[in-house]
Amino acid sequence: MSSSNTCPACQSSFRKLCGQKNNLNIYICSNCKSLYTPIGEVTHLFAYDEYYTEDNELTDSYVPEFINEVMADIIAVFAPYRRNNRLLDVGAGSGNLLAVATQAGWQAEGVEVSPHSVDFLKKNNFKIFHGDLHSASFPNDNFDVVTCSEVIEHVPEPLALATEMHRILRPGGLLWATTPHGAGISRLLLGTEWTNVAPPEHLCLFSTKGMENLLKKAGFNQITIEVRGFNPFEIFHNLRNWLIPGKKERLTGGERVEKGYQLNAALTSSPLRKTVKNSLNEALNITKMGDSMKIWAVK
Ligand SMILES: [Zn+2]
């Protein structure tokens, strides 16, 4: 079996077919339990030219308040790594992280594949490279911090991406990344019905074991992985669909994100709700069942 058919996280060729979506096979790795569609079976990659248009719109005005608060908390964690003050956001998207990092005094720049997003970021005076990370050819040991949020699940060669992020970080620099958790509560309850199971847009949903393996292979040490959060709206929505015969509507990616925002805003709106949310998150992390993976890895 060629490497384009093995698990992108741990390179094992042992796997079980667990379903199909968008005419593509979805496998679960027998070794690390990551969920993936082998790149060797993908005939057309997802078109990122169409990202951040109509349903996924970029606007200056609409950033839910809690997102800026969450971003500010994330950026604060980077402070101990500040030496040369350079921060890179891989997949800068709508620029939320770049904006908050800049406010915190970082010399922040981004790379982004979507031309719509690049136009938007340039218009807003961000330093941005249009293309993938390899094409940007940054020097060795260049950044204090590299961030990579909701990107690694999309790329055909995640090990090559992780290795490149390791190369451009200075020794002792921090990689901070997020990605959906392929072995969390929503995947276990919804299986391939979970909207994050979405090839060819999402090619690999990592387990913690798979992610740890990948990062070690890329050269990182001091790896910390947390799995927290879930989107109950999606689970309830799907349960309702199963209970009402003949009803088979699905949430689109945009709706999923929107409902997730609404829930998060509702759950952070009062101290009591915050406590409930934090306890739930803690329980999901202890049981390794959360849907969202957060990663800190030091070079
Ligand atoms: Zn694997």
What this model shows, in words?
The protein has helices at about 65-75, 95-105, 115-125, 135, 160-170, 185-190, 210-220, 230-245, 255-265, 270-285, and strands at about 15-20, 25-30, 35, 85-90, 105-110, 125-130, 145-150, 170-180, 205, 220-230, 290-299. It has a single domain (about 45-299), classed as 3-Layer(aba) Sandwich (Rossmann fold). The protein is about 35% helix and about 20% strand. It is globular. It is built from ten helices and eleven strands. It is an alpha/beta fold and about 300 residues long. Helix 5 packs across helix 7 (about 210-220). It has a seven-stranded mixed sheet, with helices on both faces. A four-stranded antiparallel sheet has the order 1-2-3-9, with no helix packed on it. The model has no long low-confidence stretch (mean pLDDT about 85). Bound molecules: zinc ion.
